[in-house]
Amino acid sequence: MGKGYAEGPAVEAAEEARERMLQGPEPVEVPKRRAVLGSTAAQPEPHVLGWEDEVDADALFESGEAWGLRVVLIDDPA
Hints:
The protein has helices at residues 9-23, 57-63; strands at 32-39, 47-51, 67-75.
């Protein structure tokens, strides 16, 4: 004879909830954004020059204003 409330979908849902609680909270995903890094005469150490969609890296390099350019994914501070 069945136990009624202790069987079926309700028990399965309770067990899943208990397992999720044991695993801890879900990690928060931080959005990433592509940034252009490079060096300039004013700041020779590599630093963020701007976001890839807002800065023309090729134009900066061709003009000589910046060098050692690379694009990296970093956390979006917004």
